[in-house]
Specification:
mainly alpha; 234 residues; 3% strand; globular; single chain; 2 domains; Arc Repressor Mutant, subunit A
Length: 234
């Protein structure tokens, strides 16, 4: 299975190094489940496709390997990995622990900061609503991430978002497999609205309970996802 048919030509930003850009492009294709487990990522072909040397391709693949999104077989091949449920559960644990504390912080913000945050979160909800009708899964997935990142920034722990994202490749792939299911997109936005409503009232326990329900949504359907996508999951 070759990746090139699904990899759009990369227009390099000449103000940035090429390896991070290749990494970001390939990571998004993997996490958005556009590249299936077993997809071969050949360095020479990717270098030709992106119009760059093999060195940044190698560096990008090594970073993907560090996140366990690819399996690297030296002198042989690099292939997209299967979803590791253990890694997904660990990422879920990490994210839940951090975001529970973030919500506590957000419910204790000074009034001016609190009002500004609520405005930004409501604007995010509007974007999510627009992605529901008609349903635009990629747009909704991006809006979902932006919603959570907004809370990290408001709590002044923005760098932790990068940490969480680095650890979340496997659980994010599970979510993307589950996202198109009937009712799931609406449930995501409904959970976000419950979180915002609790923040509006500065009700920390209610916000935390809404978050627990939100983040547990995909993991509650792991057995069903495994049944429907047996080749995807270890």
């Amino acid at each position: 299975m070759n990746a090139l048919a699904k990899v759009a030509p990369l227009k390099l930003d000449r103000t940035r190094q090429s390896a991070p850009q290749v990494f970001e492009a390939l990571r998004e294709l993997i996490v958005s489940v556009q590249l299936e487990p077993g997809t071969v990522l050949q360095r020479a072909e990717l270098a030709e496709h992106f119009g760059i040397s093999q060195t940044p391709i190698r560096d990008a693949l090594m970073r993907l390997g560090e996140e366990q999104l690819v399996d690297i077989f030296p002198q042989h091949a690099t292939v997209v990995s299967r979803i590791d449920l253990s890694a997904a559960l660990q990422a879920h644990f990490l994210r839940l622990a951090i975001e529970l504390e973030i919500l506590k912080t957000l419910c204790e913000l000074p009034d001016a900061e609190h009002r500004a945050l609520v405005q930004r979160l409501n604007a995010s909800l509007a974007v999510q609503d627009a992605a529901l009708n008609p349903l635009d899964v990629p747009r909704l997935a991006l809006a979902d991430q932006a919603f959570h990142q907004e809370m990290y920034e408001a709590a002044r722990v923005g760098p932790l978002w990068a940490l969480v994202r680095k650890q979340s490749g496997h659980v994010d792939r599970l979510r993307r497999l589950n996202l198109p299911d009937e009712g799931k997109p609406q449930a995501i936005v409904r959970d976000h609205r419950a979180i915002v409503e609790a923040i509006v009232h500065k009700d920390g326990p209610a916000a935390q309970q809404a978050l627990r329900q939100h983040l547990a949504g995909t993991l509650a359907f792991v057995d069903d996802i495994k049944r429907r996508f047996p080749a995807w999951i270890v």
